[in-house]
């Protein structure tokens, strides 16, 4: 056994022993530095290896993504998947290698440094300390004087004890040195051998893996050689085809148009057209158009979802456009917009027009039978509009609207041509139309006629009642008053050109309206009497309503406070029947937002036969007011609105009345405000459908919503909020509708106003501008509309409750 430091020399504490200790201590210090460096390098190598594995795994995932992308190529997908699996195995082998390296190098060597070298250092500190104490004892013993016996004995005893302790600690130190020198070889060799075995296993696993992959790689290499040869052959064939096509003449492509280009997918025709934008600049953009599944759609890019121009081709018409500077233009007119298109040549324009017309006829034939079946399934209704036996859903059905509206006198045939069984209606005029006349009405623009289907569209209850208040007979007595005197006959079904000229002369130019049928104008004194009477009636209603509200508030102050209760919505839902799920509203319900009709383009139309209906020497009056000898149409509309007389209101509009005319003798009140004072929901709806401004206010700063709130007309409040009334507007006293309703303690109106305000804030916070709101909001307002139109007595709770106090 070889010892680094001899134990005998340790007892002697000779210079050889001290020299050996110095040499050993220097060697151990250098060993510690080397081991620390090796451990740090091992840690860095493991960290780098793990980063390599991460990068390698990302690379392998990229190969897998490429394999999935090449799913239509079986060879590429199979090979890439197999290679990625092999690389994943190699990553696993690398991970195992780094784990073993960490255990063999890092863990073992760090343990040796922390435990064995720490024991050596502790022993060294104790040896140095006792050596110093021994030297001090020797010096003290040598300095004691002979005649001081007591000090001599004390120094001798200390020296003896110190030498004994030194021998014991020195022997322990030498033992630790010899053990350390012996152990360090085994620890270092053991860790390195384990590290090398880990590499040996890693390379053996990799070799076995790729040995199994070798035959497949050879087969793939042979297949790749064939693919290179086939690719070169395909390249020559494509170059030959390219040269052949390049020599063809494409000058006559227009004559090669065919229909049913993709009949299996429902595509009748497709190709590029220029489309005029609806913005202020009227820019033209080239888009890919197609007629498919009874719809006209276009795309900017192939991956983009098609934009629908016409959802149902039965609802549109198509015509040439020769009144613009660009050539080969034609126009597709739908209920909501006018789409101006331009083809590349005259042949292409004719082909597109023919394709659209053919598709319109086909769509009408296909869906006409479906509408007939729906009509047969629905039972005939003979009850009144206010019947409470029918459900809300049935009142909104298109088939129910058809039956109810056609029961009105004159509505069983088209208002303009007399064709039987009309299924379309003009909601602002209150008439029924056949499909051909409805298309002509759409081309007039929504400021003249708003067309809606009696079978396909959803009908709000107030609109349904409006249609039943007017009808073809009532409107024709106004708009065809001079037809017999002029000796003009109505056009027959099928006479498209004559129909266009007749309808334009009837509704746009109003040539058949008897302008002198209105009563003579009352005197100024009579006007003042009438104005004063209307004003007194209005003020008496306001005072009665306010008095009732104040009485209710003074009787029970807690009732007003309850309006601010957080459980307000719960009480509202309990008032309605909410046992079933909330119904969903179709996103294309044009009755929810009147603004959907306001965004249409103007639909210009020229009629060559206009002169047919123009008497010699007569021209249409352009001024809103007639001659001073006749009644002011605006005043007639104003008075008829308060009297709830829709036929007189329609007559006033036919004579040119401004629907937003304000009466300067009665605080600048409008016809819509008079309709509110009159208490008629249908009258308000008629004025709104004909362009009345829902936010126009009188001199007191009060609009229709203010007056409806003061009078407690819940149905009107609901209608105005749906039509975009501004509930934040304040009157001259600084009160908005909500504060008025709170003071009057009208829980229903407060609830409606707060729901509308919360819905508005929610849409603004979420950026949902122009959208109707969530389903809860729509459902509550729909229930209020149903009650206001069909069961108005349920909304009189405020007046009934007030009388109890």
From TrEMBL:
One of its GO terms (cellular component) is endosome membrane. CDD domains: ArfGap_ACAP2, BAR_ACAP2, PH_ACAP. Its main location: membrane. GO terms for biological process: actin filament-based process. PROSITE patterns: ANK_REP_REGION, ANK_REPEAT, ARFGAP, PH_DOMAIN. GAP activity stimulated by phosphatidylinositol 4,5-bisphosphate (PIP2) and phosphatidic acid. It is found in: Cell membrane; Endosome membrane. GTPase-activating protein (GAP) for ADP ribosylation factor 6 (ARF6). Doesn't show GAP activity for RAB35. This is Arf-GAP with coiled-coil, ANK repeat and PH domain-containing protein. It comes from Peromyscus maniculatus bairdii.
């Amino acid at each position: 056994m070889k010892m680094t430091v001899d134990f005998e020399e340790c007892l002697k504490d000779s210079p050889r022993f001290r020299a050996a200790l110095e040499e050993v201590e220097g060697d151990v210090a250098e060993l510690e530095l080397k081991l620390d460096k090796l451990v740090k390098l091992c840690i860095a190598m493991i960290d780098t290896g793990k980063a390599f594995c991460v990068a390698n795994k990302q690379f392998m995932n990229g190969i897998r993504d490429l394999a999935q992308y090449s799913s239509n190529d079986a060879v590429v997908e199979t090979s890439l998947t197999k290679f990625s699996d092999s690389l994943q195995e190699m990553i696993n082998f690398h991970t195992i290698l780094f784990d073993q390296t960490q255990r063999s190098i890092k863990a073992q060597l760090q343990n040796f440094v922390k435990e064995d070298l720490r024991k050596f250092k502790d022993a060294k500190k104790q040896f140095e300390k006792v050596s110093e104490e021994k030297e001090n004892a020797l010096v003290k013993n040598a300095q004691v004087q002979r005649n001081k016996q007591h000090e001599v004995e004390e120094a001798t005893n200390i020296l003896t004890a110190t030498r004994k302790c030194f021998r014991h600690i020195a022997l322990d130190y030498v033992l630790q040195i010899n053990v350390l020198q012996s152990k360090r070889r085994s620890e270092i060799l053991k860790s390195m051998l384990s590290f090398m075995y880990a590499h040996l296993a890693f390379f053996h696993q990799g070799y076995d893996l790729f040995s199994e992959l070798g035959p497949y790689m050879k087969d793939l290499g042979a297949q790749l050689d064939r693919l290179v040869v086939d690719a070169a052959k395909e390249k020559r064939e494509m170059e030959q085809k390219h040269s052949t096509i390049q020599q063809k003449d494409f000058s006559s492509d227009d004559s090669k148009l065919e229909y049913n280009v993709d009949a299996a997918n429902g595509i009748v025709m497709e190709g590029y057209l220029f489309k005029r934008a609806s913005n202020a600049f009227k820019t033209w953009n080239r888009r890919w158009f197609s007629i498919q599944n009874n719809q006209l759609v276009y795309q900017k890019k192939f991956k983009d979802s098609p934009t629908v121009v016409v959802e149902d081709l039965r609802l549109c018409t198509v015509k040439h456009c020769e009144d613009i500077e660009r050539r080969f233009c034609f126009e597709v007119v739908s209920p909501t917009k006018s789409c101006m298109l331009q083809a590349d040549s005259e042949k292409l324009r004719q082909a597109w027009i023919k394709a659209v017309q053919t598709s319109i006829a086909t769509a009408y034939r296909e869906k006409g039978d479906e509408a007939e079946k729906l009509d047969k399934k629905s039972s005939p209704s003979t009850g009144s509009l206010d019947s409470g036996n029918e459900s809300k859903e049935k009142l909104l059905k298109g088939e129910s609207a058809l039956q109810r509206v056609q029961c009105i006198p004159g509505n069983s045939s088209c208002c303009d041509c007399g064709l039987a069984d009309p299924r379309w209606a003009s909601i602002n005029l209150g008439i029924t139309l056949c499909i051909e006349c409805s298309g002509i009405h759409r081309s007039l623009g929504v400021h003249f006629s708003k067309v809606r289907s009696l079978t396909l569209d959803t009908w709000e209850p107030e609109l349904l009642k409006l249609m039943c208040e007017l009808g073809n007979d009532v409107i024709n007595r106004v708009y065809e008053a001079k037809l017999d005197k002029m000796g003009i006959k109505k056009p027959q079904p099928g006479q498209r050109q004559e129909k266009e000229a007749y309808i334009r002369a009837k509704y746009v130019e109003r040539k058949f309206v008897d302008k002198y049928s209105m009563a003579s104008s009352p005197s100024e004194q009579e006007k003042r009497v009438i104005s004063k009477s209307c004003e007194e009636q209005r003020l008496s209603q306001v005072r009665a309503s306010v008095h009732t509200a104040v009485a209710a508030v003074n009787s029970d102050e807690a009732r007003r406070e309850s309006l601010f209760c957080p459980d307000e919505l719960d009480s509202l839902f309990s008032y309605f029947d909410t046992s079933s799920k909330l119904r969903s509203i179709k996103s294309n319900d044009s009755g929810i937002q009147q603004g959907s009709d306001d965004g249409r383009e103007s639909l210009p139309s020229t009629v060559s036969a206009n002169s047919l209906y123009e008497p010699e020497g007569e021209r249409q009056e352009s001024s809103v007011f007639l001659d001073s000898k006749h009644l002011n149409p605006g005043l007639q509309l104003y008075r008829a609105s308060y009297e709830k007389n829709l036929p007189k209101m329609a007559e006033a509009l036919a004579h040119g009345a401004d629907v937003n005319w304000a009466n300067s003798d009665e605080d600048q009140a409008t016809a819509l405000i008079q309709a509110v004072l009159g208490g008629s929901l249908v009258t308000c709806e008629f004025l709104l459908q004909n362009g009345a401004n829902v936010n126009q206010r009188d001199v007191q700063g009060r609009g229709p919503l203010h007056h409806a709130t003061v009078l407690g007309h819940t149905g009107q409040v609901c209608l105005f909020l749906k039509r975009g009334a501004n509930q934040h507007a304040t009157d001259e006293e600084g009160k908005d509708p909500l504060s008025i309703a709170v003071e009057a303690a009208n829980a229903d109106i407060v609830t409606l106003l707060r729901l509308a305000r919360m819905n508005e804030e929610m849409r603004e916070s979420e950026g949902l501008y122009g959208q109707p709101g969530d389903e809860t909001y729509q459902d509550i307002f729909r229930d209020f509309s149903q009650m206001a139109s069909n069961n108005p007595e349920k909304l009189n709770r405020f007046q009934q409750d007030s009388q109890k106090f």
